[in-house]
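Field log, afternoon session.

UNIT: design team B
ACTIVITY: writing a sequence onto a fixed backbone
BACKBONE:
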């Protein structure tokens, strides 16, 4: 029972932290960077569902700390969130932050930070998700995606950053 309570408290803390960060972003409008990771094993890659924020399936990732290189951030985040040790880490693309915060249309994303897409190869398929943060994690193929994927997955598909099915 202690583990379930610990998971609930951890999930609640992530949700509260997200609310506080969103308020801070509205007031301060900071520039920041994040990473989205394409963890490859053959023709498969990892998608996760978080316990907070957007609950759709997405590429795992996180924030780049001040002074941290995006590849180092990706390594750190994947070790912390999924227990992953990869090899051949490399940046495969970037979505830069917009110069201004105002959107030109309702359909336009805010893009208040840059997102670096980082790829690595993983030897084994064992995932050890941090339960307070990650609700589900799994290996998928481009031709067998689960329903409810985030926009970041669509971006990676259009850019051909995900492993091909054939």
């Amino acid at each position: 029972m202690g583990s379930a309570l610990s998971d609930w408290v951890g999930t609640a803390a992530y949700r509260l932290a997200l609310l506080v960060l969103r308020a801070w972003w509205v007031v301060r409008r900071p520039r920041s960077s994040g990473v989205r990771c394409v963890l490859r094993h053959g023709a498969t890659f990892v998608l996760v569902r978080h316990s907070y924020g957007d609950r759709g399936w997405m590429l795992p990732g996180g924030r780049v700390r001040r002074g941290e290189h995006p590849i180092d951030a990706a390594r750190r985040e994947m070790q912390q969130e999924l227990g992953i040790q990869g090899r051949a880490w490399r940046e495969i693309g970037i979505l830069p932050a917009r110069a201004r915060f105002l959107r030109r249309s309702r359909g336009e994303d805010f893009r208040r930070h840059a997102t670096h897409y980082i790829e690595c190869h993983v030897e084994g398929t064992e995932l050890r998700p941090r339960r307070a943060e990650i609700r589900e994690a799994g290996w998928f193929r481009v031709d067998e995606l689960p329903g409810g994927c985030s926009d970041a997955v669509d971006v990676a598909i259009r850019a051909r950053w995900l492993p091909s099915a054939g």
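LOG NOTE: The chain has one domain: 2-158.
NEXT ACTIVITY: expression trials, pending approval
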